[in-house]
Amino acid sequence: MNIFREIEVSQEWLDLGVVDPDKLYEIELEWNSSEDKNTEHYRWRAFFDFMQSQVFLDPIIAKRLYDLGASDPDFEMGGSMMAHVLGRKDCPVDLLRLAAESERKFLRKIAAEKLADASS
After folding, report:
1. What H or E segment, with its residue span, contains residue 26?
2. How far from each other are the two terminal CA atoms of the chain, in whole angstroms?
3. Contact (Cβ atoms closer than 8 angstroms) between residue 31 and residue 41
4. Burial class (CB in 10 A: 0-12, 13-18, 19+), 22
5. Which structural domain range is residue 28 located in?
6. Strand ranges (DSSP E) for the chain?
7. pLDDT for res 1
8. In sequence order, what DSSP letters do the residues of 44-67 get, joined into one string?
9. pLDDT band at 103, cuts 50/70/90?
């Protein structure tokens, strides 16, 4: 699957179910017909679609998705992925505590606010 490498997704994207062969085929069709070659746009849509389909995130999956954002080739988009996981109502407290120690100030802020809400 050339599109797999083209849009810079890792095996972890497949393992978590963020993309599957059908989604990759859909992305490939769009990639080939579009002038938009910003790989992060395709990864973001796949991630966002996946997150929208999740009624509940298992705490282990939430952490893996957070880590997926941390390792994304696009720093800003990866941060958005991380923030999106933190912003969910079902984000585990342990992950919020981890994010509260992040080097990224905006993640620390999200985590601190959610932790404060959880304790009140």
Report:
1. helix 21-33
2. 49
3. no
4. exposed
5. 2-119
6. none
7. 58
8. HHHHHHHHHH-SS--HHHHHHHHH
9. very high
